[in-house]
Specification:
binds zinc ion; binds beta-D-galactofuranose; disordered N terminus; Rossmann fold; alpha/beta; 6-stranded mixed sheet
C-alpha cells in the first residue's frame, strides 16, 4: 500500500497576538476571542497512548527507549503497552487506550492488515492515531500521519550494495522479516526491483526469521544444510537475523563476510561490531529513534495543526571501513 503524501488539514485556531512596548502583550482583539493559547495544549498536558508491537530486536529496544525517554523529558503522561509480537494484544491495547480516553494513540502495527475495525473505534471515540515505524493498510481517514521509513528504498539500497560487493554475480539466500509486516513486504519488493537488472544475481532461497536472532540462525543453518557452499550471499531484512546467520555460517565452517557476503538493515550496534570483526559487509540504516518526532506530531495533532500524512525518517548506509570510528557515536 503506498502512502500518498498530502497534508492533513484540520481547523487551525487563529491566534492574534499584539506587541505593546517591547514585551509581547495580547492585543485588545484577543480579549474578544478565546485566547487560543489557553486552548492550546502543551506537552505536560498530554496523555499519549502507545501500542508497541514487542521487543523482538535491538532496533525495537532502541525504539521503545526513545519513546519512553522522550515522554519523560517532555513531561508527557505516557500509557505504554507491549503486545509481545501478537496482533490480538495490540488490538486489545488500542481498546484499553480508547477506554482511558487518551489524547492520541501511537502504534507500530506488527503487520499491515487487520486494523480497520479498531482504528474506526478510535476515530469514533475522537482519538487520532499516529502510525510510527510501520504502516497499516487502512483508508487514509483512519490515521493522521505515518512517521517512518521508506522500506522499499531500504530494500533497493541493500540490493545496490550487494550488486557492488558481488560484482553482479551471487547465489543469495534471504532472511525475511515478520511475515505480513510493512518492512518485510517492502524490503522484499525493493530488493527484487534492483536485482532483476542483474541476471547473475539469483535468490535461491527465502524464508522468514521473524526479525529475531534465534530464528535467523535456525533458518540460515537449514539453508546451509540444503545449499552449503553454493550460497555466496545473504540478504537479511534486519541485523538481528544477520547476526544469527553469522553464527550459523561459522558453525558450518565457512567465513561470514568472506566466503559468504552479508548485507543487512537497521545499523544497530551489533552490526557495527560484526563489521569491525569482518563478518558483515554492510548495513542499511533504519532509524528507531522516533520519540522526538512522534511527540512533536502528537502535540500538533491535539492542537489541530497541519500534519504531513507521511514524515519519512532520515537514513544512511554503513560499511566496515568506517565502523570502528562511527560505533562510539551510535545511540542504538
Ligand atoms: C523497521 C522495524 C523493524 C526493524 C527490525 O522500521 O519495524 O522491526 O528493521 C524490527 O529490527 O524488528
Ligand atoms: Zn527504516
Amino acid at each position: 500500500m503506498r502512502i500518498s503524501r498530502f497534508l492533513f488539514f484540520v481547523p487551525i485556531f487563529a491566534s492574534i497576538l499584539g506587541f505593546v512596548g517591547c514585551s509581547r502583550q495580547p492585543d485588545s482583539l484577543s480579549t474578544l476571542q478565546p485566547d487560543s493559547n489557553s486552548l492550546e495544549k502543551r506537552y505536560e498536558d498530554l496523555i499519549v497512548g502507545y501500542a508497541q508491537l514487542g521487543a523482538e530486536s535491538e532496533w525495537r529496544a532502541a525504539n521503545t527507549i526513545s519513546i519512553k525517554e522522550t515522554a519523560e523529558q517532555l513531561g508527557v503522561e505516557l500509557r505504554f503497552l507491549d503486545a509481545q509480537q501478537k496482533q490480538d494484544n495490540q488490538i486489545e491495547a488500542i481498546r484499553k487506550l480508547i477506554i482511558q480516553k487518551v489524547d492520541v494513540i501511537g502504534i507500530s502495527p506488527i503487520v499491515e492488515t487487520g486494523w480497520d475495525e479498531v482504528f474506526q473505534e478510535a476515530k469514533d471515540a475522537g482519538i487520532p492515531i499516529i502510525l510510527v515505524d510501520r504502516r497499516a493498510a487502512v483508508p487514509d481517514d483512519l490515521y493522521v500521519s505515518y512517521l517512518g521509513s521508506d522500506f522499499l528504498e531500504e530494500g533497493r539500497k541493500a540490493a545496490r550494495i550487494m550488486a557492488e560487493l558481488v560484482d553482479g554475480k551471487a547465489s543469495i539466500v534471504e532472511l525475511v522479516g515478520t511475515i505480513g509486516s510493512a518492512p518485510a513486504n517492502d524490503r522484499y519488493t525493493g530488493f527484487r526491483e534492483v536485482i532483476k537488472d542483474y541476471p547473475g544475481m539469483k535468490i535461491i532461497a527465502s524464508e522468514s526469521g521473524d526479525f529475531t536472532r534465534a530464528r535467523g540462525r535456525e533458518v540460515m543453518a537449514a539453508f546451509l544444510e540444503k545449499y552449503g557452499s553454493e550460497i555466496t550471499a545473504v540478504y537479511a531484512h534486519n541485523d538481528d537475523m544477520a547476526l544469527g546467520a553469522i553464527e550459523a555460517i561459522e558453525e558450518y565452517g565457512l567465513k561470514p563476510g568472506e566466503d559468504i557476503m552479508i548485507v543487512s538493515i537497521d545499523a544497530a550496534r551489533g552490526a557495527f561490531e560484526a563489521m569491525i570483526a569482518g563478518k558483515l559487509n554492510a548495513t542499511v540504516e533504519c532509524n528507531p529513534l522516533l520519540g522526538p518526532q512522534f511527540f512533536e506530531l502528537a502535540l500538533k495533532v491535539v492542537n489541530g495543526q497541519l500534519i504531513p500524512k507521511w514524515v519519512p525518517s532520515i537514513e544512511s548506509v554503513f560499511f566496515p571501513e568506517d565502523a570502528a570510528e562511527i560505533l562510539p557515536t551510535r545511540k542504538y
